[in-house]
Amino acid sequence: MEIFRTINGLRGCVQAWRQTGAKVGFVPTMGFLHDGHLSLVRRAQSHADRCVVSIFVNPTQFGQAADLDAYPRNEARDLDMLEAQGVDAVFIPEVNEIYAPGDETIVETTRLANILHGQVRPGHYRGVASVVTRLFNIVQPDVAVFGEKDYQQLQVIRRMVRDLHMPIEIIGGPTVREADGLAMSSRNVRLTDADRAAAVVLSRALDAAEAVATTGGTVESIRAVIQDTIDAEPRATLTGLDTVHHSDLTEMSGSLGAPLAVMISAQFSDILLIDQRVIQP
Ligand code: AMP
After folding, report:
1. Is 80 found in the same domain as 112?
2. Does the annotation list 31 as a binding residue?
3. 79 and 203 in one domain?
4. Which of the residues 37, 117, 124, 165 is marked catalytic?
5. N or C: which end of the chain has fewer CB within 10 A?
């Protein structure tokens, strides 16, 4: 496995692969890897001949400096995990490599970035689109894989790639969970024991929503059961509950006429967790 910290180094490697006709897959991450990330790597490997993973904690997608500073990191462990997974190259740039002094170009999906979770975290999806564009231009993959867990992010990326005519196939990967149902996240290690135990309420709320839907429940009744389930957990504060069309993320109401994306975010002490499920009509 090759490790690159510069754009030139990584580009040289990918160009050499291309000359042999290899198809290149890419998984962008912020590191502190878990099985969810590795499932995306396996998906990339099954769609491409070579796999690049980036590890970059992107400052422009964090609203608060404290959240950025507290983001967990463990480069040595990440590299061991990626090597064991058979990754071909890892790109670990410094902030100055991605954002050169004087950098001022932003990329924004103007509607998708500013609705739903984008209202809870202003500027977040602009930061995501801006860094993923830079990474795509550096790696120039044929295929890139993103988790469905960050459902709005996946839709932002799909729309950006479509609008900017980027020749990259975007593939979504299902959410990988802990044994009790909590969606794996690099942030989970920052939860206190009590909050970690309480956080299972997110997946329980989604299970309850699915149960309501299978008995013909409306969007309103799905929202009510999620609200009630989370309200019953005193350690959780619901900060976002979005029930939207699965692809364009417009609000839905009444009986389910199309797949419904349910996206929830909740605060446990100072940690914001998200979870999501697409419920079929
Ligand atoms: P992050 O390192 O949090 O930026 O995540 C990197 C990629 O991994 C994103 O595409 C995420 O959606 C995805 N991801 C994060 N957690 C999970 C999970 N539990 N299951 C599947 N994919 C995930």
Report:
1. yes
2. yes
3. no
4. 37
5. C
Residues 158 and 190 in one domain: no
Q: For residue 222, is pLDDT > 90?
A: yes
The whole-number pLDDT of residue 49 equals 98
36 is known to lie in a ligand binding site: yes
The CATH number given to whatever domain includes residue 208 is 3.30.1300.10
Residues 93-147: tens digit of each pLDDT: 999 999 999 999 999 999 999 999 999 899 999 999 999 999 999 999 999 999 9
The rounded Å distance from CA 174 to ligand 1 centre is 9
124 in active site:
no
Same domain, 209 and 267: yes
Asked if the structure places residue 272 within a domain, the reply is: yes
Same domain, 70 and 129: yes
CA 86/CA 66 separation, integer angstroms? 34
Total count of domains within the chain: 2
Residues with CB under 6 A from ligand 1: 29-30, 36-37, 39-40, 146-147, 149-150, 173, 175-176, 183-186
186 annotated as a binding-site residue: yes
User: Average pLDDT for residues 210-221, to the nearest whole number?
Assistant: 96
Beta carbons of 204 and 228 less than 8 angstroms apart: no
For ligand 1, atom 11: residue with the closest CA: 147
Q: Token pair of 163, please?
A: 């609008």
pLDDT band at residue 65 under the 50/70/90 scheme: confident
Structural domain containing residue 138:
2-173
Same domain, 78 and 17: yes
CA distance 93 to 115: 30
Q: Which amino acid is at 120?
A: V
Instruction: Name the closest-CA residue to atom 18, ligand 1.
Output: 36
Question: Distance, CA 31 to ligand 1 centroid (Å)?
Answer: 10
* Contacts of residue 121, Cβ cutoff 8 Å, sequence gap at least 6: 63
Which residue, by CA, sits nearest to atom 13 of ligand 1? 147
Does one domain contain both 162 and 222?
Answer: no
Phi, psi at 280, each rounded to 5°:
-80, 145
Nearest to 275 by CA among 52, 117, 131, 83: 117
Q: Would you place residue 67 in the very low, low, confident or very high pLDDT band (cuts 50, 70, 90)?
A: confident
- Residue 124 labelled as part of a binding site: no
Residue 29's pLDDT is: 98
